[in-house]
Amino acid sequence: MATKNLTIRLSDQLIEASKEYAKKQGKSLNELIREFLQRNLKQDKEYDWVDELLEVSEDNAKYEGYKFNRDEANER
User: Fold this and answer.
1) pTM of the model as a whole
2) Which residues contact 41 (CB under 8 A, 6 or more apart)?
3) Which residues of 41-72 are buried (b: 16+ CB within 10 A; e: fewer)?
4) Fewest CB atoms less than 10 Å from the CB: which of 38, 52, 62, 76?
5) DSSP 8-class letter at 5
6) Interacting residues of 22 by C-beta distance below 8 A, sequence separation 6+
7) Largest CA distance in the chain
8) What is the pLDDT along the chain (76 residues), one digit of tens a residue?
9) DSSP one-letter code for 45
């Protein structure tokens, strides 16, 4: 399977908490994120997983003092 790199922007707090969680699970952060996406894409063809991802993003944005709404998150 060919792979590509993906860059995402997250708060330092979210990154560190995610790394700790991944370590407790015996996985890398990369593996944890990949499994999350694979699991959610397979389970939900209507892409409700986007709501969960937006919720995490909104929680993350609160640290920066700004909360995204759905329209802004989907803006292209």
Assistant:
1) 0.52
2) 47, 49
3) eeeeeeeebeeeebeebeebbeeeeeeeeeee
4) 76
5) -
6) 28, 29, 31, 32
7) 40
8) 688 888 889 899 998 998 999 999 999 999 998 888 888 777 656 666 677 777 776 666 555 555 666 776 666 5
9) T
